[in-house]
Amino acid sequence: MTRLNKITPCLWFDTQAEEAANFYVGVFDDARVLNVTRYGPGAHRPADMVLTIDFEIQGQQITALNGGPEFTFSEAFSLQVTCDDQEESDRYWYALQADGGQEGQCGWLKDRYGFSWQVFPHELNGLLTDPDPERAQRAMQAMLKMRRIDLAEVRRAADQG
């Protein structure tokens, strides 16, 4: 039995919760659908329509809800995907924005459902917080010019001192 997280993000969709959850489970390694609940007769949505779908991505439980068209996603909430290396970062970057997603700045993107993700190799954090403030600033300036994070380019910029 899966333990309940104390804090679980809940993503509000109009009607695409199941489709989105299955998409996310297909993108990520170590991901699975945990539970599906459906609207019953007399609800404000069609009976048997998915109400919620709980899924897990690499140990993080998330709930997707078909709540209706009243609310939409914004960049005010995103999920970070901290990757082992550039190859993994690129794989998630391209997979998440496939079929209608949009690139953003500095490793941010929106998937086809309009949900925001931040995708970057974990080494980026070390470059941006380097003990040498000038090196960290050069890394930051390079990153700010990017859409998809190019770790080799950030490293080159940081080392040009």
Structure description:
A hairpin with a 5-residue loop joins strand 7 (108-110) and strand 8 (116-121). The chain has 5 helices and 8 strands, in the order E-H-E-E-E-E-H-E-E-E-H-H-H. The chain is elongated, with a radius of gyration of 18 Å. The strands form 2 sheets. A 4-stranded mixed β-sheet has the order 1-4-3-2, covered by helices on one side. Strands 5-8-7-6 form a 4-stranded mixed β-sheet. The protein is α/β, with parallel strands linked by helices.
Name the helix and strand elements from N-terminus to C-terminus, one letter apiece: EHEEEEHEEEHHH
Q: Label the structural class.
A: alpha/beta
Report the major sheet. 4 strands, mixed
C-alpha end-to-end distance: 53 Å
Q: What oligomeric assembly is this protein in?
A: single chain
Low-confidence stretches: none
Beta content: 25-35%
Overall shape: it is: elongated
Q: Largest sheet, order of strands side by side?
A: 1-4-3-2
Helix content: 25-40%
* Mean of residue pLDDT values: 96
Give a count of the beta strands, DSSP E runs of length 2 or more: 8
Helix run count? 5
Radius of gyration based on Cα positions: 18 Å
